[in-house]
Amino acid sequence: MPVARRTDAVLLLVALVWGSSYLAAKTATVVLPVLLVLFARYAISALACGALVAVRRRTRPWTGAEIRIGSLLGVTQAAVLVLETYGVAHTSAANAGLIISLTIVLTPLMDRTGGRRGMPVTFFLAAGLCVLAVGLLISGTGLHAPRPGDGLMLAAAVVRAGHVALVGRLTAGRTVDPLHLTTAQTVVGSVLFLPPAIAHLPDLARSGATTWTQLIYLALFCSVFAFLAQTWAVQRTSASRASLLLGTEPIWAVAVGITLGGERLTLWAFLGAILMITGTYWGQSVERGHRTAGQTAKEDPAGRAMAPAGSEPTGPFASGSSSPHGRDLSARG
Known about the structure:
Layout: H1 3-31, H2 34-55, H3 64-89, H4 93-100, H5 103-110, H6 121-139, H7 148-171, H8 178-197, H9 201-205, H10 209-234, H11 239-246, H12 249-259, H13 267-296
Helix pairs in contact: 1-10, 1-12, 2-8, 2-10, 3-7, 3-8, 4-6, 4-7, 5-7, 5-11, 6-13, 11-13
C-alpha cells in the first residue's frame, strides 16, 4: 500500500477509535467523577507508554527538547480533554459532535508551520460541507437549546485546534521520538489530575469490571494507540489534511451508536454521512494540490521537485523520528 494511502487509513482508524470513545466516556462519567476518569485514563496510558519504552529494541536517550515539548503539549492536551469530557457530560452527544467538528475549520486557520501559505477558499468550502454533514448526522436525535456543555465543547474545539498548530510549530525542524513525546504528555496529565482525584481513589478501587474495561479502553486504544498512530501518520501529511480525515469521527460515532446503543440511522443521518465522505475527499484533493504546488516551487536545478522532508517511513516505535515537519494531533482521545 502506498505511504499516502496507508497514512490516510491510519488516520481513519484513529477517527473510528475516537468515535467509539463517546459511549465509553459518557458511561464512565456517570459512575465516576470526570477528573477521576481523566486521572485513571492518563495513569494507565503513562504505565503503558513506560512499558513500551522499556521493551523497545532500539532505544536512544531522551532529549531535553522532547521533555520540554512533551510537558507543554501535555498541559494543552489535558486542557482539551477536560473541556471535552465535561462538555460531553453536560450536553448531548449530538451537540458535542457538531461543535467539536469546528476544529476542521479552525486548524488550517492556525496552521502556519514553515511559513505555509493560507489554504485556498475551496478548502474551507469542503470543510464547511463537513460541518454541514455533522449537523445532518445529529439531526435525527434532535438539537436542543444551548447548555453549559455546549460552551465547553466550543472552547474545546478552539483549544484543540490551537494544540494541533502548536505541535507543528514546536516539532518543526526537530528530531522527536513520538513514543517519548507521548510518554511525556501522559505523565504530565497524570500529575495534573492526581491532586483532584486523590479523594476519590477509593471509588476507583471499588469500580466494577465494566467501568474498568471502559477506562482501559479509553487509555490503551483512545489515548496510547491513537496518539502514537496519529503522530506516525501526521508526520507524513499536514495538520489540515489530517483534520479532515479525523473529521469523519462523527460517522463512526453514529455507527457505534447504532450497533451498540440501539440508535436508528435516519434519512438525514445517512445524507450527512454521504456529505461527510464527499467533503473529506474534496478537502483532501484541495489540500494535496495546495501542498504539491508549494513543493513544486522549490524545485532543484534539474527541474525535479524535491521530495518532502520526512518522506522516509519511520514507525512510531522507531528509535527516532527524523521528519523536520513532524507534528502530532494528539489533542483528542
